[in-house]
UniProtKB/TrEMBL annotation:
Residue ranges occupied by any GP-PDE domain in the UniProt entry: 37-345
Highest taxon in the source lineage: Eukaryota
GO biological process, one term: lipid metabolic process
Protein's recorded name: PLC-like phosphodiesterase
Organism whose genome encodes this protein: Phanerochaete sordida
Signal peptide as annotated in the record: 1-20
InterPro entries hit by this protein: GP_PDE_dom, PLC-like_Pdiesterase_TIM-brl
Keyword set, alphabetical order: Signal
GO molecular function term, any single one: phosphoric diester hydrolase activity
Lineage, uppermost ranks: Eukaryota, Fungi, Dikarya, Basidiomycota, Agaricomycotina
Length: 375
């Protein structure tokens, strides 16, 4: 073991969101899944329905997801919206008309969300294009990008008992900070919406940018947080500190293996959940294929559990991977195909959340899509 690994964690300096903070006294928190294995619908279930839209979340409920996973960006005028990408891509959206005649920002496709107003975003059709990698996606032509508030309003209609859980990401780019708003903007605006919703106690706050996890725990220690990580964010490949981990160097943490150090670092920032990529960067997709390299391993799972962390890998779209993860006793699986993972969970005799009534959910979807069209 290198000498650096023996350095006491108390000597690590940590800066989050521009503020030096102490983490030692922060308690851990954990959401109840009501005893169900946590099947998470990634972006609502991207493999089945156009992603991060009201239709995708509706079908995530109908398919029996335990948790709806989604992403948040923030517009130029400070509105929290539900979208994954920092910019609007022509793969997923198409322009219709400018919000005002001769708008110099038009066309909006290709622009960053942080440089567009909500009114400009609302002109986009983000429901007509089926992604080539997801040929079974249902499309909903004319669907608009939703605000987080609009999504919560839809959920209250479809889920009046407030049973659904949420895993909401701050889509902030630590490597290119000029492409999104900053840490404080995300934490304060998202937290205000969480607090004003009926779902505050049902939300996990996740991020690849660990500064936002630290800042959210500082804002409210009771918020459940999840530390996202993969090879790209764990290292910049030059043995320098990666910007994604807020200044932390994984080499300074205990453990003879990289996997143990990842879990130790997540625990150090008082994350409640470690959410690693399921696979590595070998470009080999399946464990049965030569050259497959996992990112999540049994060593990582065991280390996370020994530290009191839950572990929920992403994005698991192969049953061969899901089966291994279940063998290793992960606490949840994030998938573009929550219906398929749920079937496997039931086959393993693990408790699965009930499906939401299709008729009610689709009626709520029709109502809320109509509201968006008329707004």
């Amino acid at each position: 073991m290198r000498a650096a690994l023996m350095r006491p964690l108390g000597q690590l300096a940590f800066i989050a969101a521009g503020h030096a903070i102490s983490l030692a006294g922060l308690p851990g928190t954990r959401l109840s899944t009501n005893g169900f294995f946590d099947v998470q619908a990634h972006r609502g279930g991207r493999g089945n329905t156009i992603e991060n839209t009201l239709p995708s979340f509706a079908w995530g409920l109908i398919d029996g997801a335990t948790t709806l996973e989604l992403d948040n960006g923030i517009t130029k005028d400070g509105v929290v919206v539900v979208w994954h990408d920092e910019n609007i891509t022509d793969e997923k959206c198409k322009d219709t008309t400018p919000v005002t005649p001769n708008d110099p920002d038009f066309p909006y496709v290709g622009k960053f969300i942080a440089n567009l107003t909500l009114a400009q975003l609302k002109t986009l059709d983000c429901g007509s294009k089926r992604l080539n990698n997801y040929p079974l996606q249902l499309t909903y032509p004319g669907t608009k990008i939703s605000t987080l508030e609009e999504l919560f309003d839809f959920a209250e209609c479809a889920d009046p008992a407030h049973q659904i859980l949420w895993n909401i990401e701050s889509k902030i780019n630590a490597a290119h900070p000029n492409q999104t708003l900053g840490v404080d903007d995300f934490v304060e605006k998202q937290y205000a919406l969480f607090t004003n919703s009926a779902y505050k106690s049902s939300i996990t706050y996740q991020s690849f940018d660990w500064r936002t996890i630290i800042a959210m725990k500082k804002r409210d220690p009771s918020v459940t947080t999840s530390a996202l990580i993969d090879y790209e964010t764990a290292s910049d490949h030059n043995n320098a500190t990666t910007p994604w981990l807020g200044g932390l160097d994984l080499n300074l943490f205990p453990g003879p293996t990289f996997e143990q150090q990842v879990a130790q670092a997540a625990r150090y920032i008082r994350a409640d959940i470690l959410s690693p990529a399921a696979t590595g960067d070998s470009h080999v997709a399946d464990p049965t294929m030569d050259g497959y390299v996992p990112f999540t391993t049994k060593v990582m799972v065991d280390e996370a559990h020994s530290l009191g962390l839950e572990i929920k890998p992403w994005t698991v779209n192969r049953q061969n991977i899901a089966e291994r993860l279940l063998d290793w006793k992960v606490d949840g699986i994030i998938s573009d195909y929550p219906n398929a993972v749920r079937r496997l969970v039931k086959q393993r005799n693990l408790p699965a959340a009930p499906k939401y009534p299709k008729q009610r959910v689709l009626a709520c979807l029709d109502e809320h899509l109509a509201r968006q069209r008329d707004s």
